[in-house]
Amino acid sequence: MDKFDIFISYSSKDKAVADKLVTQIEKAGYTCWIAPRNIVAGVEYSEVIEKAILKCKVFLIIFSEYSEKSSWVRSELNIAFSENKYLIPYKIDATPLKGTMRLLLNDKHWIEKGEGGDEIKQMNLLVSAIQKYYELLEKGEIDDSQSQYYTNIVKQKKLKKRVVIFTVVGLVLAIGLVAFLISFFPRMQQIKKYNDLVDQAIVLSDTSIKDLVNKKKFLEQARDLENDIPAMRQKDFSTILSVTKTKLDSIYLRNLDDARMFAEMETENGDRQAIDRFKITLEIKDDSAVRDELNIILSRQWMYE
Fold first, then answer.
1. Could you tell me the end-to-end alpha-carbon distance of the chain, in angstroms, rounded to an integer?
2. Contact between 73 and 59 (Cβ < 8 Å)
3. Cα–Cα distance between 125 and 52 in angstroms, integer?
4. CA 228 to chain centroid
5. Do 47 and 18 touch, CB atoms closer than 8 A?
6. Which helix (H) or strand (E) holds 91?
7. Taking the model in full, what pTM does it have?
8. What domains can be seen in the chain, in order of their start residue?
9. Rg (Cα) of the chain, in Å, rounded?
10. How far, in Å, are 133, 275, 290 from residue 278 at the CA level?
11. pLDDT score of 99
12. pLDDT at 144
């Protein structure tokens, strides 16, 4: 099966709860993606999990004292958040929110696990929330239970499309005038540089790490020029920059966690995997501490010759 409705994110220590939840959801006619059930033997966990999250519309996180400490769960949540997936938190103990979890889940509508008969009742309530989401999705409406942030993201996407359209149309109409003004007003050189940076950033893809890094760099350079740009000439790219930073942070944290996990194996294959992931993190952010970790692994490569 290539398509799934719901991605289940959980700690392996909560597997019993996760399995029971999957049974209830799939009885209602929805398909769940859950590890390790849906992972083919021999494939790389991080790659297949990211693809699974992208395919699912709903991201259901089982929140507990164990998942709160899990780097895998945090990485999965970061991906779902950056991809604007519909988040449903299912809380199974009294562990408080903090750090990244609090930032991303604090304003969500929580469903808490009950005991005995109440547990099944709460699971049915969760299934009802999923059904309501898909019903409204089919109607083209926004679910009222979604967080204010999710609603804002939808509005911001529409705004971004308008900005791109107006930018392209404005540039076509203004090319002749700008070319003339540049020769008379030095300030026009700054405006041209600002426009070029924004335009270069907008056309870059969101799937390449190199493109995401360059998009962030171009937009930050454009933002630094705004003090010299008249207000009427400025462009609203704050949403694009924010989403780009979020995606890079997610990729950075995921690869850093993977790199450290592979490095702990102290094997030739593990070191090779760790080196590749450390290089990805350094491509996103040149961190001296991370570079030191990479140098330690590189220094022991003679062991495998």
1. 43
2. no
3. 25
4. 33
5. no
6. strand 86-91
7. 0.45
8. 6-146 (3.40.50.10140), 147-305 (no CATH)
9. 23
10. 39, 5, 7
11. 81
12. 37
